[in-house]
Amino acid sequence: MAEQEQGELFLLDSPLHGPVRGERSLMAWPFFALAKKAWMQPLTYKKGDISIEIGPGPKGVATIYDKEILLYIASLMVSKVEAGKAIGQEFSFSANDLFSVTGVNKSARSYTRLSEALERLQGTQIKTNIEAGGEGEEGFFSWLQEAKLQYSKGEGGVKRLKAVKIRLCDWLYRAIMVDRQVLEYASTYFQLGPVERRLYEVARSLCVDGQTTIPLEDLRLQMGYQGSSRQFKFALTKTIKEDPIPGFRFEIEDQGLGTVTAAGRTVREYLVKIIPESTVKRLSS
Fold first, then answer.
1. 285 is a domain residue
2. CA neighbor of 166 nearest in space, from 86, 80, 98
3. Which secondary-structure segment (H or E) carries 2?
4. Which of the chain's termini has less CB crowding within 10 Å, N or C?
5. What single string gives the DSSP state of each residue in 253-275?
6. Each residue's pLDDT tens digit in the chain (285 positions)?
7. Pair 28, 214: CB distance under 8 Å
8. Residue 19: is the preceding peptide bond cis (ω within 30°)?
9. Within 13 Å and on the Cβ side, how many CA atoms surround 78?
10. Does residue 24 sit in helix, strand or coil?
11. Are both 200 and 214 inside the same structural domain?
């Protein structure tokens, strides 16, 4: 990722007017590491006809916190579409507006984290058979084709960040602009921890038409949870008791003894019932 000093005036796509929105495939499937720090291991998801491979860049795999930038960009895009404006894949926005939307303080450390997040979003390599805009892609792509921090110089040569400039990848651009499977996020989403964020996203993507059930192990895999099934059940049970997920309730149903392991041990199977507390709204095409 490059830093660029630039003195000329340019137009910003920020501030964001309207709610935070996100693309449904990025809600449903595990494209991001559930980590606060750099995750250096590859991630894979293969179930049914869905295949996802995520390779780390020099700074690791993009995390669920780095995803905030993509949510912000998607929200800018939808806001402009609703206003009847033409948009491309390049966006310039102020870091302050991003921080305001996502609830991040405007400290020096936040600007450093922003730079690191942009580098991970550009460095992470994604390979998937999920089509976007009716088109598939062979090989790998990155979330951002370009990412720059644009500076001006103040008194004494001190650099002042003017804007963040990015170019969105073709895959995500098509998904948002052609498929229009864009869903609104709860206003408290950015206050959640990494596991709670993914639990909310999976629930939001699955319950567009009402409540649903999903096997516990399928939910673990779809969330991208890297711990064991036992650890996931413990974490989910704790989350259900604390009830922090906006708009949804969860119930774990014991199905009794079920799957026989390779060691010949029979393990219990569980279903998770996801119940929306209010009607969800989807962006119409």
1. no
2. 98
3. strand 2-5
4. C
5. EEEEEEEEPTTS-EEEEEEEEEE
6. 443 333 344 578 888 988 999 999 999 999 999 998 889 999 999 999 999 999 999 999 999 999 999 999 999 999 999 999 989 999 999 999 999 999 999 998 999 999 999 999 999 999 999 999 998 888 999 999 999 999 887 777 777 888 999 999 999 999 999 999 999 999 999 999 999 999 999 999 999 899 999 999 999 999 999 999 999 999 999 999 999 999 999 999 998 766 666 666 767 899 999 999 864 444 444
7. no
8. no
9. 27
10. helix
11. yes
The rounded distance, in Å, linking the Cα atoms of 26 and 223 is 11
Domain that holds residue 167: 2-184
- Amino acid code (one letter) for 107: S
Residue 158 CA: distances (Å) to CA of 114, 154, 196: 19, 5, 40
Interacting residues of 147 by C-beta distance below 8 A, sequence separation 6+? 1, 118, 119, 121, 122, 164, 165, 166, 167
Buried b (16+ CB within 10 A) or exposed e, 191-225: ebebbbbbbbbbbbbbbeeeeeebbbbebbbbbbb
C-alpha distances (whole Å) from 218 to each of 46, 90, 187, 207, 213 are 11, 36, 27, 15, 10
* CB count in 10 Å sphere of residue 98: 22
User: 28 with 147, same domain?
Assistant: yes
187 by Cβ neighbours in 10 Å (0-12 / 13-18 / 19+) ranks as exposed
DSSP annotation string for 121-188: HHH-EEEE---BTTB---S-B-SEEEEEEEEEE-GGG-EEEEEEEEEE-HHHHHIIIII--EEEPPTT
The residues that bridge with 147 in the sheet, in sequence order, are 166
**Structural domain count, the chain:** 2
